[in-house]
Amino acid sequence: VQLQASGGGLVQPGGSLRLSCAVSGLSLDYHAVAWFRQAPGKEREGVACMSSGGGSTDYADSVKGRFTMSRDYAKNTLYLQMNSLKPEDTAVYYCAAGDSTVWSYWGQGTEVTVSS
Q1: Which of 47, 70, 75, 85 is 20 to 30 A from 16, comparing alpha carbons?
Q2: End-to-end CA distance of the chain
Q3: What is the predicted pLDDT for the residue at 54?
């Protein structure tokens, strides 16, 4: 199983980025998937979580209305569209897959920096 996150970078406040997570060796039909982030000096936090089959998606209060998680079943790929980015969104972002209580599989992380 491999999760490959990409799409991070430097963006100005108010800007947008789309993160991708290519998944291999694991079907998204049968696993919940999520995005987490870890800012410097802070604990890792959940950003968005999508149930297996894509029936529901939950977001952290801090990103509701700005971030949108989606998945492409044909490409077995997850996305995190991030709009209206703020400096406090600066973090390393990780994608993960599991059963929504235990995240067994993790990507390597992609760094997002929001700064002017």
Answers
A1: 75
A2: 37
A3: 78
CA–CA separation, 20 vs 11, rounded Å?
A: 16
Q: Is the pLDDT of residue 53 over 90?
A: no
> 84 Cβ partners below 8 Å, 6+ apart?
14, 16, 66
- How much of the chain, in percent, has pLDDT values that exceed 90? 88
Adjacent-strand bridge partners of 26:
none
Region of 53 on the Ramachandran plot (φ > 0 left; ψ -120 to 50 alpha; else beta): left
pLDDT value of position 52: 87
Distance (Å, whole) CA 101 – CA 34: 11
Q: Residue 113 has which token pair?
A: 């920096």
